[in-house]
């Protein structure tokens, strides 16, 4: 059958319709500078932010929320965003026309707006953490897939089922992790402006079995010593060596000399320095995480679970990505993620309380009904940006719920039943297939499930009792009567607002 006659995958028409609905609301193809996506968001670089029709965009059934950062981010949800993005990119390419004088003016104005926003919001720390996230986030799908396969292999082993299949599953699950340093090196060089394959080549030294024959600082090196942190450092060093070579090596010799000096120089420093230092840091991270749960227990879980949502809002949670990856590489799972996932449970509990406390606010209640399923699966943006954060106090009480859920999981970690995750990315109910630890699967599920229930209950109770003032309740319930506020206009209680908002995420409407 000819390719043109090949049936389209199911859902293609729906994804194309979503892309077609979004494009004109963000200024059309001429206004799009870049298109990318992460696990849940379509990230757009815009020439002119003022051309975006926020109200109409938020009202689209497929849009769960909108976030404005360095890029304009449209929350579509996991799975959906990966299918809508290619359709959107095709529409952008098809709709671009030759640039006229007006387009040049538009680009200049957009560049000025973007520069002004960067000057206000981009601190050196946030820029660095964003780079770290850009290195590790692309690895998350492989971590998830391999983590679930590892969990399936463990389950079959415990049940004594299909023993001939278990080694094959082990190979599938471990292959990526055995070479993760190479992928980290590749992405690091790409992010820092070097040649990606050279970054991967230098990082590959870390996992090469032959390093066991090399002595450094009076000790034999071990394959994998330093892990992802060593790979990160090696690739950054390789980028700087490469850039130096590009400046001083004659153009006629560049193709031969630059790659050789890059791998040789940064590789030797990696073998006789970085692997040793990064290995010590990796070991210290693992020891500290174990010590924290063993000795800090409930207190550490309470603090981590309570602070995670504010860290996400500030973008500082990205600093935890290499720590999670190091723990997974070193111990097979990260004990921090199940605790941090409790922040999402607190958010779900808080949203449920908002639903109960605002019986006459149909708009916010519809938002909560459409966003709760994603919240249970660990996708918190619709509830955060559509409900708790605009309301203010419920965001704080959601953090309280996360703190109690984290304290529950941390307490059992202190009692010897630490729960870990074999991958990063999922949370909520989606984390159950990735649970791992020293105890049986039933006990791990019970502890993590108990933490979620605690987070739900604490978030609900804190929000129900302390999430609203009497004035807020009166206005939020009264001003959304049909005669007062048009349908689809939720209430804003932020200082200085007129108590109406543009429609927020109502993905199920």
What are its keywords?
509 residues, mainly alpha, 19 helices, 64% helix, disordered N terminus, disordered C terminus
Count of helical stretches: 19
Spatial separation of the terminal alpha carbons: 40 Å
Helix content class? 55-70%
User: Per the principal axes of the C-alpha atoms, what is the gross shape?
Assistant: globular
User: Can you count the beta strands?
Assistant: 8
The Cα radius of gyration reads: 25 Å
How does the major sheet shape up? 4 strands, antiparallel
Task: List the quaternary state of the chains.
Answer: single chain
Which secondary-structure class do the elements indicate?
mainly alpha
Provide an overview of this structure.
The chain is mainly alpha-helical. The protein has 19 helices and eight strands. Strands 1-2-4-3 form a four-stranded antiparallel β-sheet. A hairpin with a 2-residue loop joins β5 and β6 (about 220). The longest helix has about 60 residues, at about 250-315.
